[in-house]
Design brief:
With 326 residues, the chain is of the alpha+beta class. It contains eight helices and ten strands. The termini are far apart.
Amino acid sequence: MDSYKQLLQQAKDSEKRDAPSTNVIKKAIASSKWKLILTTLTIALLIAPTCYMLTFLYYAFGTKSTTLMDVTSQTLYVTEPNTTLEELEFDMDFSLFSMGLSFEQFKQIGDEVYPVKHYDTRFMLNDLVEKKITSKLEKTYPKYPTETNQWLVHPNNRAEFNTTEERQVLKGLPNETVVEAYISLNDLYTVEEVIQQMPKVDVTWAAIYTGVEDKMLSANGNVVSPIGYPVQRDQTNWSPFKDSTSREKTFLSILHFLANYEDTATAVSSHKNLELKERIKYLEQQDMKTYAVVITGPKAEIEQLQNQEMIKHLKLGEVKLWNWVR
């Protein structure tokens, strides 16, 4: 028994000797865990601001933000009839790997310019990932055009709207109103020829024939929409046409620019399948002519234009109370 007790005592003494080293190991493990947690948190906290800084540098100090703003604005100028943008109305914000761009779109109705749409867009690097449009328009141009539902109609095409009914509505409007009207012509004309025939109203935008509008289909069979340029002198700082000496050359230059970013331009526009390369090729070989225009002016003046032989279709746009001061 004495030997057994002695053996037990030796085991207890051995445990007591080993206990301090075991505690040291446990403390070391616990310390390492906390260091790992703190290191991970530190790295995580550093990654977020670093990513935000890289995002800001990507957009602000490169050309990306300017390029995306130019693509957005120029797309709307050539695809949205009778609209303008104001430079000071652009609001930009940055979040992780993305840029938000918000702005107002304006339309001339009569002698004044009215805000008609508010855009909230978000780009993830170069790609448009979100687009929200808040419209103040009473009439909205077809969002997804087909071959026949266009408001600006080539002479060879039929219109889904009833021109006779549109003219009756125009006739019923008070004389103390100004009107925006989409005028489709009976043939191709130069823009100057159209302006000369409509001296008492403003021709604000011209749809340009690009070789595909007689069917509204590209060579690949995709439905296309009217593209064109503003006709009136535009003093808006953001307008690419502000100091233009030749609207035709500026228009073609814009198309060349947008062709490099066609996916983004198509995403920005309400009209899909811009088919810019095919249309540019035609315009470089042919004189520019229009088949339809947007005009605005007093109701009575627009009503008198209906008797002109060159006018085939009329579609009413926005109507406002009298603001014509000429």
